[in-house]
Amino acid sequence: MTRILIIYTGGTIGMVRNAATGALESCDFENLAANIPELGHCGADIDTVTFEKPIDSSDMTPEHWGMMVRIISDNYAKYDGFVILHGTDTMAFTASALSFMLENLTKPVILTGSQLPIEAIRTDAKENLLTAIEIASAKDADGNAMVPEVCIFFHEELMRGNRSTKISASNLAAVSSNNYPLLAHSGTDIDYHREYIHKPEPGGEFTPHYDMDPRIIIFSLFPGIRREAVEGVLRSDSIKGVIFRTFGSGNAPENEWLVELLAEAVRGGKTIVNISQCATGKVQMEKYRTGRQLLEAGIISGCDSTVEAALTKLMFLMGCGLSQEQIRRRMNIPIAGEITV
């Protein structure tokens, strides 16, 4: 029997409705487990660890990511896989961060949650949790983990964590992988697409990382953007990295002041990563003159990365204490399958 550790952080999946206010509030794992008696018959030996104070995922921080890494690292030899119960709002950020912080992962780390609380009549919590446990338990014919990477399972779909993003606040299919194929699909059986699953580095040793540098901001272009708004971001001494959300394939207005401010920020030591505002596709700054100007200013291409993956990867590399040049180079090299080069 495989051994699975469930890490309960909070989120809608375990919330209950406050009788006085009508608002959903975090509850403990015991309440969740009491509503899923099938947990005792899922074919795995399950243990649980609960955050001392379960949180809404809107309150998630890099410190919480470090707590999850610590729990996984301390229990890595004891369990065959890990399931993290997490709110959907920042699930893709957490999955992306963990994919970088858990270096040379050889066991499944599956994040899941739900759009409806467990006590709701039409809840999606049971299917998501039970299937996540089944995937975390799955092994191939050689006894190796079927999915040895950080993933999100949601509404019948298994996605690479650092390729995922939340796309809906109300649909049960709340999470999507827009730029990378699904790793598996759950129907009457679980159909794994093994050609897309990340393979561990041969001989690589599992190495946990705990430090993330959050001195980063996500900054989006829009028609009519004003100079003073851009200056406020790029000239801030407290900001060391910028996820720069541009138009189309990585384009920006041909404003001389904008390019000058960006180039000045790069020369001053800031790392600026170009991410498209489009849901699919990739950044190609060499394609148009409006993108080439950014390339010449020293902006790095984010390729086909999600915003969540670009942000957490930059936090991770900055947290490793690398130089600006090392960070610039590593941003364009896949660490955990987060970009296609």
Give the topology, please.
Elements: E1 2-10, E2 16-17, E3 24-25, H1 29-34, E4 44-55, H2 62-74, E5 81-85, H3 91-101, E6 102-103, E7 109-112, H4 125-137, E8 150-154, E9 157-160, E10 165-166, E11 175-176, E12 184-186, E13 190-192, E14 207-208, E15 216-220, H5 227-234, E16 241-246, H6 256-267, E17 271-276, H7 289-296, E18 300-301, H8 307-319, H9 324-331
Parallel strand pairs: 1-4, 1-5, 5-7, 7-8, 15-16, 16-17, 17-18
Antiparallel strand pairs: 2-3, 6-14, 8-9, 9-12, 10-11, 12-13
Helix pairs in contact: 2-3, 3-8, 5-6, 8-9
Low-pLDDT runs of 5+ residues are none
Number of strands: 18
Q: Name the CATH superfamily classification of the largest domain.
A: L-asparaginase, N-terminal domain
- Described by the principal axes of the CA atoms, the overall outline is globular
How many individual helices? 9
**Percentage beta strand:** 15-25%
What is the strand arrangement across the widest sheet? 4-1-5-7-8-9-12-13
Mean pLDDT: 93
**Helical percent range?**
25-40%
Provide structural commentary.
The protein is α/β, with parallel strands linked by helices. It has two domains: 2-208, L-asparaginase, N-terminal domain (Rossmann fold), CATH 3.40.50; 216-331, Rossmann fold (3-Layer(aba) Sandwich), CATH 3.40.50.40. Helices cover 27% and strands 22% of the residues. It is built from nine helices and 18 strands. The chain has helices at 29-34, 62-74, 91-101, 125-137, 227-234, 256-267, 289-296, 307-319, 324-331; strands at 2-10, 16-17, 24-25, 44-55, 81-85, 102-103, 109-112, 150-154, 157-160, 165-166, 175-176, 184-186, 190-192, 207-208, 216-220, 241-246, 271-276, 300-301. The strands form five sheets. The protein has an eight-stranded mixed sheet with strand order 4-1-5-7-8-9-12-13, with helices on both faces. Helix 2 packs across helix 3 and helix 8 packs antiparallel against helix 9 (324-331). The protein is globular. The mean pLDDT is 93.
